[in-house]
Every structure is written in structure tokens, then in C-alpha cells.
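Review form for a predicted model. The reviewer records the input and the model, then writes brief findings.
Reviewer: anonymous (R2)
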Amino acid sequence: MKTTLSSGVRYPFAYVAFGGQPTRWWMHFLKKGFYHCALVLGNGRDWILIDPLVHFTDLIILKNADILKGLKAKGYRLIRTTPQIPKLTPVQFRPLTCVETVKRFLGIYQPKIWTPYQLFKFLFLKKENNP
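Model under review:
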């Protein structure tokens, strides 16, 4: 695959974690259990956790950690997916949310996906149609 800045290796798979608790008043309008999403990139042993929060995006590198087990223990649902490099599309100005951040890391161009639950459904259907 082509990269833009380096000749490094891209992780071949990712997990999207869905869960969290409502921390803002407007989050009560979201589907219960789907208040937040985060992205985990890894090779099965070493991981990069990308956690886009309201006030900043946390990036954590974990060596020899079982992050998936830890997220499940905190009540998060995980979906495995494959990051893609999308084709070049017109610029879309959208709010910088956890969903938009995860979509961009995964190369998903779906302007109608706004909420964590919509992203969950999209990834679940994609996984079901491409086992």
C-alpha cells in the first residue's frame, strides 16, 4: 500500500470499541451503550489505542498488553475490521467527533454516519457481508 509520509508498515487489522457513559447532556440522545467509540490498531501483541475525546485525542502505545480483554471488561463491544486507503473525495467539513476520527483512520467515506451506533451497524453489516 502507498503511504504519504513514510515507508512504514500499516497494521493489517483494527478493532473499533463501542461503549462508554454519557458525560455530556447531549449524549443522552444517543443509543444506550453506544455513547463513544475508539480505535485499536495492533498486531495481536502490541497496540495503539486512539481515543478521540471531546477535549483532546488520546493516543496510547501499549506493549505486550491485552487491551482487547481490558476493553471488554469495561463493557465495550469490539468489532474487527480492516483499515483501507480511500479514493480521493471532495472535502467534507464535518464536526470532529469520535465517529469522524475513527472513520478517517479506517478510510471510511460515509457522510451519513454520525453516531457510534450508525458506525457499529455499518461495520457489522460489512463484516457479515465479507466474512
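Findings: Residues 13-126 form one domain.
Further findings: The chain has a mean pLDDT of 87.
Recommendation: see findings above.
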